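Late entry, evening session. Most of the bench is empty. Finally got around to the prediction I had been postponing all week. Sequence below, unchanged from the version circulated by S.P.
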Amino acid sequence: MEETRRAVSVYYESTVDPSHILLTASTSEAYAYLFKLLCNPGDQVLVPRPSYPLFECLAGLEAVEVRQYPLVYHDGWAIDLDALRDAVSERTRAVVVVNPNNPTGSFLKLAELQKLSELCAERGMALISDEVFADYSFAEDPARVKTVTHAEQCLAFSLSGLSKVAGLPQMKLGWIVVSGPEKLRSEAIERLEWIADAYLSVSTPVQCAGPQLLAAGEQVRRQILRRTIANLALARSVFCGSAITILEVEGGWYITLRMPRIRSEEEWTLELLEQCGVLVQPGFFYDFEEEAYLVVSLLTPPEVLREGLARIRGLL
């Protein structure tokens, strides 16, 4: 529905042409559409490591191979651009960035986007930017990329949806914003519309409600951001002076704890669960390359989070 696409454009402060927006039922479905669009069976997409562990499943369902490129940490996260370039093969069709990344909470930087755009244009690849957490930055940074909806050098796709924008995962409405050189963009939109018409997955009721839900989402985002910022400050105070380090985080809904390597991640996770009644996720869920990292949600109610963090420190 054009009205719903216009409402999505308003979310981007009316800087995006509604005709460049394609509605989907979710970000996961958006990935499926893009893998269908860009890849033949056996083709490859590059995805970040560490990151959300859904890419292999979604790509595998489309008979597409995932190759990982590393994010490196030196008092902050950055893309290893040399390793990413080395991972490109003749069958690589797209580079996926998650901005900010989940769970590291690291944003794409302008200098990184420039390099990625040049590489994608040079090799005929597309850039896919998952921006579902883009509204949840903890501080402003002029070097940071919020969205790639205005990419010019290469074909690019920006993904988001109500799940994070309005805190409504059950409403099943996402979208793809297509940008890049006009010819590539127009061809991609035409083919994506054909794919979407083949599935007809976005329900009419959620499209009708979309403008109101997006408008209501602004208040929800403020509430979530207030909680995550307060909980981040709480976590820093609880672990201050301890052997537990909170890795630098720029946004999102999670923090990563670097634990002493006296136990493995699995041992830390199971001991916290069985002895302390605390549920965390081990870093290997997200393909962290080293031990020992634990991932903690910042959405937890503050009183529950305070008790859980105190138990983690107490176990240490």
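Two things to note before I forget:
The CA atoms of residues 108 and 145 lie 5 Å apart.
The first helix runs from residue 2 to 11.
Will write this up properly tomorrow.
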